[in-house]
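Archive record:
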Amino acid sequence: MFGLFGKKSPEELKNQTFTTEDGDHYIGELDVDQPDGFGTFTWADGHIYKGQWKWGKFNGKGKMTFPDGSIYVGSFKTGKFHGKGTLTQSDGTTFIGGFVKDYLDGEGVIIYPDSSRYEGNFKKDKREGHGSLHGKEEGCYVVYKGGYKDNLENGQGYMLVTNEETGEWVKYFGEYKDGLPHGTGAEFHSDGEQRLGVWAHGEYIGEWGTELPKKMQRKARKQKKKIQSTATSQSAPIDDGKIKDFQQYKTLISNIFKE
């Protein structure tokens, strides 16, 4: 793509310009026959990169503008988003944080067009580990703080859902699995109603000590072994109703808010 020039003197290699057969255009510094230093490359399809180069690839600080209006500003390495950066998509969604090989990875923040906000850990663009979410869903304000796995609430967590119109609210403290209460938990309502016990896939199934259905227990044990072997999730395994008194439960709740 960039093999258009033979060897030139250092002065001749500065601020060179060329256009490829595909209509792509480059202006900037060259080393031998490829971009190296600072330069701007404009593709015929509308992509524009302006920033630092090394041996023909984006490397260092730069700005990439996409045909749909999305913009990334930050660090690059060997042609990919890598390091600290900000990606603003055309719909207004903004990603701020660390990137690894084009993926949002590590600590970061997502701000959505409706002002909803997630702040926490990511792995390959997905919420993974510990995080907090403040947002809106079906006429309600939603606040969640706790564990995530594969973009869904998993492990220990706290959720508060408040109706925008009536102000009525529901709080849940406890275990989650695949985005739903699953395991030991406690639910409190603004009208004074409360339930303490065990949930299975979002459904309350009984007081503390109630056993999960056999299939769920086997799956929970497999999940526990997987978590222990990989050590990749910050979420706690399903408890299967082992908590028997309120003091133990208070300890469980306090662990949710440990950084």
Q: What stands out?
A: Residues 214-230 form the longest helix (17 residues).
